Every structure is written in C-alpha cells, then in structure tokens.
C-alpha cells in the first residue's frame, strides 16, 4: 500500500496548487457519506459543518476570496463535531472521524499550502478502506499476507483507479466551473468508497 501512496505523490507534485486543492476536496467528498451515516444513526454531530467547509473550498477554486478568519472558523466548527470514538460503539465513529480529519486537512492545506496535508487526505481515504476491508472480510491483522489480501479487494482497486483517473484529468487542466462540475460528476460515478450498509 505504501507503493500506492508513492505513485500518487509522484503525480500530485506535478499539479498546480489549485489542481491539488480540487483533488483534495474530491477525495473529501467521497468520505462525507460515512459521517452522514454516523450522524443519522447516533443522532450526534452535524454534517452541514463538513458540507459548509466543502462549499468554501469550491468557492476558493472559483476565485471567491476567503480570508484566514473564515477558514479558521470552519476549522474550529469541524473540531466541535468530530466524534471521540471511545464514546461510541461500533465502527461508524471511526469512519466519521476519518471524514472530519480529511476535511480539516483540506482546510489546513488551503491555509498553509503544505502538501503534507494533501498526502494525509490520501492516506485517510486509504485507511478508511483498509479498515472496512479488514472488518468486512474478517481478516487477521497478524496475517503476513494481509496487505496483499487488502490490495485485492474491489473497494481498494476502485479507489486507486478513481484517484489515478482524476490525477490524469487534472494534469494541465484549467480549473473553472465547467471543469469542476465535470470532475464532481465523474467523482460521483465511481461509487461509494465503502459499503455503508454492512457497517454498524
């Protein structure tokens, strides 16, 4: 799986900052349903905070000026609606935590332009799927062949393809509203990042 991250990172560094931001927010959007499911079932949290952060990032991509105070404010709101996994039963809180962490890192990326936040987002998406695969397939974490078994899962392969396809489309692209809309449509067509109906 480390090879996956390395291959993604090599392509990320070839993108402009705006292209990188679009890649980040598209990945965050894949994680939002996990938080929504958690919030609906546990009656806790607020998906609208994450959606507001996503909207702000898309506003930035359309050259709508955002100031640091606005970004700091949404970051604080995300912190408030991030679950403490020890206070909830089951796995949903962990998936919700991943969603919050990814969106927080996207906001931090806008503020700092530090690419480590973007790599973190890719890692979080990967960790979400890894956790799902291990739980859904009841894999033994001590299995020496664990990484290979995870890598063969359909959700892992789908996410790898989604990221590679998006990176290929982003390279050299002008970031404008029609392109953003087309990329969001493409992102949605790739399917759910995990199968939420089997998560409790």
Briefly say what this structure is.
The chain is 72% helix and 0% strand.
Describe what this molecule looks like in 3D.
The structure is a single chain. The chain is globular. It is built from nine helices and no strands. The chain has one domain: YP_001051499.1 fold like. With 200 residues, it is mainly α. Helix 2 packs parallel to helix 6 and helix 4 packs antiparallel against helix 5. 72% of the residues lie in helices and 0% in strands.
CATH topology: YP_001051499.1 fold like
* CATH homologous superfamily assignment: YP_001051499.1 domain like
Morphology? globular
Number of distinct helices: 9
What is the secondary structure topology, with strand pairs?
Elements: H1 2-12, H2 17-42, H3 47-61, H4 68-80, H5 92-112, H6 115-136, H7 146-151, H8 154-170, H9 177-189
Helix pairs in contact: 1-8, 2-3, 2-5, 2-6, 2-8, 2-9, 3-4, 3-5, 4-5, 5-6
List keywords for this structure.
mainly alpha; 72% helix; 200 residues
